[in-house]
Amino acid sequence: MAGHRDHEELVVITKTYDLILWSCHHTSRFPRNHRFVLGERIERHLYELLETLIQAKYTRQRQELLAQANRRLETLRFQMRLSKDLQCIKLNSYHFVANALDEVGRLVGGWLKSGA
C-alpha cells in the first residue's frame, strides 16, 4: 500500500507544480494594478503550497503540514475568484484553475485521511 500512497503524493506534488506553471503564464498578464499585489500573492501561495507538500512527503509528522496546505488552497480559491471578478483571468481560465485547485484539495484530503 505504501507504493500507492507514494504515487498519490507524487501526483499531488506534480499537479501543484503544473498549477504553478499555468499560474505564471496568467499572473504575468494581469493588469498592472493587480499584477504586483494579487498576482504576486497567488504565485507566492502556490510556491508555499508546493514547498509544504514536499516537506509533508519527507516527514512522518505531516498532519499539520497537510492542514496548512488545505488552508493555503482555501486562500488560493478566493484569490482566483477575485482575479476572475476583477477580470484578470477569463471565465474559462477560472473554471480550469478552480477545478485544478479542487483536485489538489481532494488529493491532500485523501492523504490526510490515509493516516498521513
Structural commentary:
- This protein has a single domain, classed as 23S rRNA-intervening sequence (de novo design (two linked rop proteins)), CATH 1.20.1440.
- Helix content is 84%, strand content 0%.
- The protein has helices at residues 2-27, 32-57, 63-85, 91-113.
- Helix 1 packs antiparallel against helix 2 (32-57) and helix 2 (32-57) packs antiparallel against helix 3 (63-85).
Question: Can you give keywords for this protein?
Answer:
116 residues, mainly alpha, 4 helices, 84% helix
Count of domain modules: 1
Report the count of strand segments: 0
Compute the number of helices: 4
Report the end-to-end length measured between terminal Cα atoms.
Answer: 13 Å
Low-pLDDT stretches are: none
Q: Architecture, according to CATH? A: Up-down Bundle
Instruction: Look up the CATH topology.
Output: de novo design (two linked rop proteins)
| Class from secondary-structure proportions | mainly alpha
Share of residues in helices? over 70%
CATH superfamily: 23S rRNA-intervening sequence
Order of helical and strand elements: HHHH
Average pLDDT, to the nearest integer?
93
Major sheet attributes: none
Rg estimate, integer Å = 14 Å
Q: Name the shape in a single word.
A: elongated
% residues in beta strands: under 5%
CATH class: Mainly Alpha
Quick rundown:
The chain is mostly helical and 116 residues long.
How would you summarize the topology of this molecule?
Elements: H1 2-27, H2 32-57, H3 63-85, H4 91-113
